[in-house]
Write a structure and sequence with these properties.
mainly alpha; 3 helices; about 65% helix; elongated
Length: about 90
Amino acid sequence: MHLRLAVRLLAVLLLLGLGACADTITAGQPLASSTELLRDYDKTLTKSEQKAAIDELKNDQEKAAKEESAAQQDAPALAPAQPAAKQD
């Protein structure tokens, strides 16, 4: 008698578990492809992302170079060091 009860209980639990899984699979959203799922783990950039990153770096370097040259032109020229006067 206890064996029958245990078997029936396991059967009910198994059906409930499978029903819950089936409900989450068909929740209204289409299943993602494997490439979409792996994309989150993939750290490489697409060609367009690579091009955008390279362009951004070039623009930043050009901007920094312009700011540096402007700062050098705006800074007053340092007077050459004069030798110390001789003391006799």
